[in-house]
Amino acid sequence: MRKRGGLFWFQLGFTLLIVSFLIVPVILSMLAGLTVNYQSGLESGLTFRWVAAVWEGYRQTIFLSIGLALASLAATLVLGVPAAYVLARARGGWARAIEELLVMPVAVPGLATALALIVAYGTWGGFRTSWTFILVGHVLFTLPFMVRSVLAVMHAIDLKTLEEGAASLGASFGQRFFQVILPNCRSGILAGALMVVTLSMGEFNMTWLLHTPLTKTLPVGLADAYASLRLEIGSAYTLVFFVMIVPLLVAIQWAAREPRARRTERA
Amino acid sequence: MARYRLFLLILPAAIVFTAFFLLPLAQLFVIGAGGKDGIAAYAAIVTDRNYRASLVATVLLSGGVTLATLIISGIAGVFLTRNRFPFRPAVTAMLTFPLAFPGVVIGFMVIMLAGRQGLVGDVTQWVFGDKLVFAYSMAGLFMGYVYFSIPRTILTVMASAEKLDPKLEEAARSLGASPLRVVWDVIIPGLMPAFVAAGAICFATAMGAFGTAFTLATRINVLPMVIYTEFTDQANIAMAAALSFILGAITWLVLAVARTAAGSSVAAAG
Fold first, then answer.
1. Does A109 contact B75 at a Cβ distance shorter than 8 Å?
2. Lowest CB count within 10 Å: A52, A82, A98, A193, which one?
3. Is the Cβ of A145 closer than 8 Å to some Cβ of chain B?
4. Domains in chain B: how many in total?
5. What are the two backbone dihedrals, phi and then psi, of residue A46, each rounded to the nearest 5 degrees?
């Protein structure tokens, strides 16, 4: 190993500074959520009082967010996986065009999409006030991630040869799709699913306009708490959110690393 | 037969997408032109003094955030690709970790750092005897946007830095180029496609971001906040529709141009 010069230490220091910029506030807010009085510091003692207050006042938002995330996952699986298959098989110009279109809800700000949904369906009373109104927004926003993720795997494997092989052995289309294609796309479906659940749980830009007082999601509740309650309760609520989202983020990183690790093993 | 099957398989996605995205967006466009100004509402973003000011502020903010993020990610990304040291994977993981934090939470992180009870305030109080609080302003917003942009760019920059050929740098160095020259003439051009792709995502996300500004201060004059205020407080739905349609067109265009220019297919997350 060559000797490390001043440049190395400068860059290391810079990188660690950036890491602390990202991580320190997370730790501070977790501590604040467990401290009796954040202003007087840790000496005031640790408590679960604020977490309990969040559970008391906001647990509905937690259940709704989990429900929305799972419903978005179901919808993106049913809509997105077949769509990815079609886009992988039909590599014409129109397939590219459809892919471009499908990705639009990610490129267009959530605020605009939400306004569009409200002007189009806002007067449909039952729909507007139900949780499915938010679900529609979440599905639009997360669908591209499922499609892209599955499509990437489908492009990487030789879909056509696999299918022709199965067909030559007499497999029907249903058998080919469920027993050959889907198992081969496992890693893409898993990565897409993790992304969909994580993004749905954290979606705010659209949800803030789509929600009603009876359909508050976790991030909507967070905005509420930040604006009107003491710092400790906002922090405790954020802590609850972190506890839900961090395992998902770790899983996403793990799923992204897996194929690379596999490739190295083979090589 | 096969074509027919492909058509059937994409039909559900196509129906949902058309009913809940394309048609509502078309309706948004029509409503934007249906206010008291008619179709001229679409020009208001440049003809009206207030809207133009917030457009300029939003573009400047997003541009500044993009530049700062690319410099930070460039330095940290190249460093992490080139050097092996203990805890390197952990450092990389921590830099990408806040990727899926919603804007509201990022706003709260800025409050934890630079708010009334924040770390910066405590430290400055202790050192200078004067409390520095800047979370609830454009500076706080800038900080928040850089916070959520770093995780979005660092991986793209690292992937591209891995492909840089160290031989080119050695050649430049052996020909007598200073380290700064090597960075400027060899490393930056090599990373340019990644910078364009990642920078476009930063810019578009910052243009359309809403949650962070919402948490920090509703009076910050950026376009998404203006749209929100037009919609809720002023009940000026036509103007809100026109402005958000234009905003959507801008972010979509930036991403589309960058994708064509960089030849990659990176999806944004907002």
1. no
2. A52
3. yes
4. 2
5. -100, 150
